[in-house]
Amino acid sequence: MDHQYTYYTPGQDGNPQNNQEQRQPRKKRGVPKWIKTVCLGLIFGVTASAAFQTSNIIAGRFLGTRDEKKETGKTEAVGNAKLTTSSDSSVKSDVADIAGNAMPSVVSITNMSVQQVQSFFGGVQERESQSAGSGIIIGQNDTELLIVTNNHVVEGSDTLTVSFIDEECLEANVKGTDAGKDLAVLAVGLDKIKDSTMEKIAVATLGDSEQIQVGEEAIAIGNALGYGQSVTRGIISATGRSIDGIDSSLIQTDAAINPGNSGGALLNAKGEVIGINTAKAAMNAVEGMGYAIPVSEARETIETLMNRETRTKVAEEERGYIGIRGEDVSQDISQMYNMPTGVYIAESIKGGGAARAGIAKGSVITAINGTGVTGMESLQEQLQYYKAGETVTLTIQVPGNDGEYKSQDVEVVLGSSSN
User: Fold this and answer.
1) Which of 189, 133, 173 is nearest to 305 (CA)?
2) pTM for the full model?
């Protein structure tokens, strides 16, 4: 069966390219063949005149760690940003207390985008769409508050809004994404956040997901169904799981992870974040199979993303183009033909940036400026932040005579759509 997102439309219970020079309607990812629906924790509603509201929003005090953990927490410098790791060995058993302490560091995220949909009469129309997910406050630099979430929560966005526990809502920018890892880091300017909000929001304390054991307690917090913050409880069911579309071993839990929980926190009994909720298996024969990205495995990617330059999308007429005709190399194709996942270059257009850089047909693009790409959609997502004339570094896999691929980094000067 296909791997696809599960969407939630208020009032309903239903399930609601490649030429790089042209914008195409976005394709949704498929699902493991054994899963009828993989929710990826994202709740989606197409809004014509009515859209759900995100309420009871998350946040808390923002000082690196909460008062009761200041004496035991260890702060690691990561460039200008910081991650906080606990060294506290005490265990709390009161779920209400654990949730209450963690909620200030979890936020709700609203993604507003414009989607192309087929009309009743066969044409194509543009409609404003709203989706909701969750995020975790992980640190700050000199000018920004930093939030980690899933890539699929923020992809395709025209506007991203982060909501805090005091119901303060502020626009956020994407600092960096990694589609293969399904991770993204958002930034909110500190100068935009009121002092009263700063006093209530908190930075999450990260645990060590490598030390978790099957059977131990797990608590999930997130913006389920876009209704606002909710808490579920279960155990760690398994570790080292994998699902299509995410290049990471995953934690499996029976704590309920529902649409809207994507990007939220999976906690251990000490209230530390051990995972980033990302997906669930949903079919009639399955109960209690949710998945989270282990925070220890995600740490390196998060640190890389949180220390990147924050960029904003450029006007469509100013955007830069690589100058290729590309095809997706999905995981299935990768396994079938022993190719790396990414964008297969079917043609390097004469006069384009790729051709001028010497990139030939047959190579596979796997990253742009260090951000992994899984196909044309994720490559185009990244290119929305660069103007024609800017230089980007493409990581490409070049086939050798022995059939093996070798990695190369190539600098490409982006052309314009008229090239």
Assistant:
1) 173
2) 0.74
The pairing of strands 290-294 and 250-253 is antiparallel
Contact 163, 169 (CB under 8 A): yes
Report helix, strand or coil for 386.
coil
Across residues 116-144, what is the average pLDDT?
81
- Asked if residues 367 and 381 have their Cβ atoms less than 8 Å apart, the reply is no
Hey, what domains does the chain have and what are their CATH numbers? 1-312 (2.40.10.120), 316-413 (2.30.42.10)
| pLDDT surpassing 50 at residue 345 | yes
Q: Is 52's pLDDT higher than 60?
A: no
**Partners of 88 in the beta sheet?**
none
Under 8 Å between Cβ of 14 and 46: no
Which residue in the list 88, 182, 254, 328 is annotated as catalytic?
182
Answer yes or no: 3 catalytic: no
Task: Assess whether 363 carries a catalytic annotation.
Answer: no
Exposed, middle or buried, 303 (CB in 10 Å: 0-12/13-18/19+)?
A: middle
From the candidates 152, 230, 248, 348, give the one annotated as an active-site residue.
Answer: 152
CA distance 16 to 46: 9
What's the rounded Cα separation, in Å, for the pair 185 and 67? 25
Q: Which helix (H) or strand (E) holds 189?
A: strand 183-189
Plot region of 143 (φ>0 → left; ψ -120 to 50 → alpha; else → beta): alpha
pLDDT digits (tens, 9 = 90+) for 172-191: 999 989 988 999 999 999 99
Residue located via tokens 């909110």: 188
Active site residue 55: no
Residues 6+ apart with CB under 8 A from 284: 36
Give the pLDDT score at 358.
95
Q: What is the pLDDT of residues 58-68, one digit of tens each?
A: 333 333 333 34
Which one from 209, 230, 262, 378 is the annotated catalytic residue?
Answer: 262
Instruction: Give, rounded to a whole angstrom, the gap between the first and last alpha carbons of the chain.
Output: 40
Listed residue (367, 303, 349, 260) closest to 82, CA to CA? 303
Strands (E) located in 60-166? 73-78, 81-86, 106-118, 124-140, 144-149, 159-163
* Strands 364-368 vs 371-372: parallel, antiparallel or unpaired: antiparallel
In contact, 227 and 99? CB cutoff 8 Å: no
Mean pLDDT of 187-210: 96
Alpha-carbon distance values, 327 to 194, 301, 374 (Å): 46, 26, 11
